[in-house]
Write a structure and sequence with these properties.
mainly beta; Immunoglobulin-like; six-stranded mixed β-sheet; two-stranded antiparallel sheet; 10 strands; about 15% helix; about 45% strand
Length: about 150
């Protein structure tokens, strides 16, 4: 019985590390499910975070299995390889440390190939503790759409 309780406590601790923190969330305005090629991809950011935290940086990443196979070749974006192929990625937008006042991310889709896309929008939130030490929290949300020609 004692082993079972200790095992249960350990599982809760491990799953707690990887679970979503309900105090932080992204609520990007819905991207249209179908976008015509050449129409800008616009992501309007809204979020929820504890008092004292502010968004400091954002980036947009696509994992290679979640974008058209010829995306990197057609756009010239570099693939960042990973030993596990499903984690190889393309940075659509690398970290930007100045978030626009209107909280809108705009990306041109003119040279993007048609197909289904699932991208990950990452945001870093920062606050300062009572000792003025910076505390950071990174959260992400998927952006899904189909690009048509």
């Amino acid at each position: 019985m004692k082993r079972m309780i200790i095992g249960l406590i350990m599982c809760c601790a491990v799953f707690g590390l990887y679970g979503k923190d309900a105090a932080f969330s992204l609520q990007p305005a819905a991207v249209p499910s179908v976008i015509q090629a050449g129409t800008p991809l616009k992501i309007k950011l809204a979020w929820k975070c504890p008092e004292g935290y502010v968004p400091k940086a954002w980036r947009l990443v696509a994992y290679v299995p979640n974008i058209p196979a010829d995306f990197a070749k057609v756009t010239g974006n570099k693939v960042t390889p990973h030993k596990m192929k499903e984690w190889s990625s393309v940075f659509i937008m690398n970290w930007i440390w100045k978030i626009p006042a209107d909280y809108v991310l705009v990306k041109d889709t003119k040279n993007w190939p048609a197909g289904d896309y699932r991208m990950s929008l990452y945001i870093i939130f920062e606050a300062r503790d009572k000792n003025n030490k910076v505390i950071s929290k990174m959260v992400n949300e998927n952006i899904l759409f189909t690009l048509k020609r």
